[in-house]
Amino acid sequence: MSQILITGGTGFLASTLIDILLSRGHNIITTVRSAEKASQVQSIRPDIPPHRLIIKIVPDISLLSAFDSAVVNDPPLTGVIHTASPFHYSIDNIKKDMLDPAVNGTIGILSSVQKYAPTVKKVVITSSFAAMWNPHKPAGSKYSEKDWNNVSWEEAVSPANAQGQAGYRTSKALAEREAWGFMEREKPSFGLTVMNPSLIFGPVVPGSLRNLGEVNTSNTRIRDFVAGKFREKCPATGSAFWVDVRDAAMAHAVALEKGEVTDGKRYFLTAGAFCNREIVEVLGEEFPEVKGGLPEGGEALRDGEYPEGGPKYGFDNSASVGDLGLVYRGLRESVRDTVVTLRGVPE
Ligand code: NAP
């Protein structure tokens, strides 16, 4: 029986991933930041016996030794999936709020496994399209796993980098670069696979959110459209590509299970391009009762349209389809299921 450690068990992606791995017969050990969060993760899965879902508390992933005791388990771990990392755009201190937890968390989990969990054969790290993003990429070209965000440490720590999406993007780029650097330098006995999901939408695990204020960063636009927040003006889309949480989580599970086949690889996870106007259309058609709160007409929707001529970039997701067998869901299903599950979350 495999024993898989998933860091950040309270997260949007990790919640779905835990359920997928449990349903595929794996036993889960997950880390959360507090005892309160530990009880929440356990209480929403009342049918899972405690030995199949063990929760460990790791309060501060910025410490390089944070995971030293979490990786020691009886029975011993066989695999690790590292999802925990800050994903938000309100940054006071770029180093403390973003870079330290993202980068040290990543190096920390790898070195803890190397030192204290010799039975682990595979580590999967959740990176991001943010680690592939290239501001100089020519319009009309295709994104694939070959793309890298080449931000430097100097740029990353500059206060200007705390604005908008930049801080988050650089935290993911540097964390992934450090992970591959670790593998190159240390040559540990486990293999590494990296997931590079684009913006993730999709249903939340029932009970995983105490209120709608806790919706994770990527799903907030759907929550806010439904609440009528953008009636006057649709916000700019801000991201080129998207993927459903169930597909992104399944990719992690399959990459882990495939063992050496996926060692040393990164996977761009995307169903394709999207724009906010398409989300508005789906919401209006699937939930006519919210139509009055949605932006309507050319001017109100303008910022949420594709650039003239359509999506700015193409994409190549063939590695994830070929190696991991992904059949990506469409935007309609993802947006619809997101709204249905968010309606079950208290305000
Ligand atoms: P999420 O719901 O905000 O979950 C993030 C998880 O990381 C939570 O468990 C959170 O714990 C934990 N975490 C954040 N900062 C931490 C810190 N300083 N110390 C300890 N734990 C911390 O985000 P998500 O959308 O599921 O994202 C999960 C992973 O996917 C992240 O690595 C993210 O970068 C990556 N990703 C997400 C998207 C997307 O669109 N959602 C796209 C590409 C990649 P708490 O619950 O205690 O805060």
TrEMBL record:
Domain of life: Eukaryota
Chain segments annotated as transmembrane: none
InterPro entries, per the entry: Epimerase_deHydtase, NAD(P)-bd_dom_sf, NAD(P)_dehydrat-like
Keywords, comma-separated and alphabetical: Oxidoreductase
NAD-dependent epimerase/dehydratase domain segment(s): 4-261
UniProt similarity note: Belongs to the NAD(P)-dependent epimerase/dehydratase family. Dihydroflavonol-4-reductase subfamily.
Name this polypeptide is given: NAD dependent epimerase/dehydratase
Species in which this protein is naturally found: Aspergillus kawachii (White koji mold)
